[in-house]
């Protein structure tokens, strides 16, 4: 007898966000499209995340706990467990609007060349609606160039074929931060990433525990950029764009390190800039 698998596997990684994750889970279970499984990977939480997750009585929910290994390892484990041929991620502090899966799956199925897509998003900071800046405007199609200066793809907004995720190697577990920037660079180099016009997620920020506003995260973006220089699909035009972005970011990190009295870090990143200049 053939076992029917769900069309979509939803993966939520979480760590010490019991109140947030309950709201995230509820937003998934309220979807108008019902043929999904919801995989929660608890990355070694020390709060009451276990009880919060298991307070939901729904056969589609799968809870797995692991030792704390970071969000990349948690997402990768979730995909490894997934039985659906489509993958959708949701960060535990974000929310989906009720028709997110329904509308996005229809969009993904609307043309054979669409293998990964994202929705537009609504932003909240400290519980209040805010408007994204122009630089955060999402693009659609072959967007590698637009992905270089900042992360314009949101994990919570993405749906893709599982084979695509596996093809690019998933999240790099050596990245403690900016792991999504690294993944989107690799994906955007090999696949068009389409953006729907509909805002179907709520991206919540400004709360304790977020990494995105910490100084020094450019270190990991620089790591991702150096890594993509070795990618076999990178052409000459894109290579020069990547080098220019490395030069820009290394200058920012070096300047910031000098300002903060981090002399060794300043020497390292000033040296990276000189090394890059020697390659040109």
Report on the architecture of this protein:
This protein is of the alpha/beta class and 280 residues long. It contains 10 helices and 9 strands.
Count of helix runs: 10
Question: How many domain regions?
Answer: 2
Question: What's the number of extended β-strand segments?
Answer: 9
CATH architecture title of the largest domain: Alpha-Beta Complex
Global Rg: 19 Å
pLDDT below 50 for ≥5 consecutive residues: which ranges?
Answer: none
Structural class determined from secondary elements:
alpha/beta
CATH fold description of the largest domain? Spore Coat Polysaccharide Biosynthesis Protein SpsA, Chain A
Largest sheet: 9 strands, mixed
Roughly how many Å apart are the termini? 60 Å
Tell me the series of helices and strands, N- to C-terminal.
Answer: EHEHEHEEHEEHEHHEHHH
Q: Kindly estimate the percentage of residues that lie in beta strands according to DSSP.
A: 15-25%
Overall helicity: 40-55%
Q: Which CATH class of the largest domain is shown?
A: Alpha Beta
Kindly state the mean pLDDT as a whole number? 92
**CATH H-tier superfamily of the largest domain:** Spore Coat Polysaccharide Biosynthesis Protein SpsA, Chain A
The backbone outline, from C-alpha atoms, is: globular
Offer a few descriptive terms.
280 residues, alpha/beta, Spore Coat Polysaccharide Biosynthesis Protein SpsA, Chain A, 9-stranded mixed β-sheet, 9 strands, 40% helix, globular
Summarize the structure.
This protein is an alpha/beta fold and 280 residues long. Helices cover 40% and strands 19% of the residues.
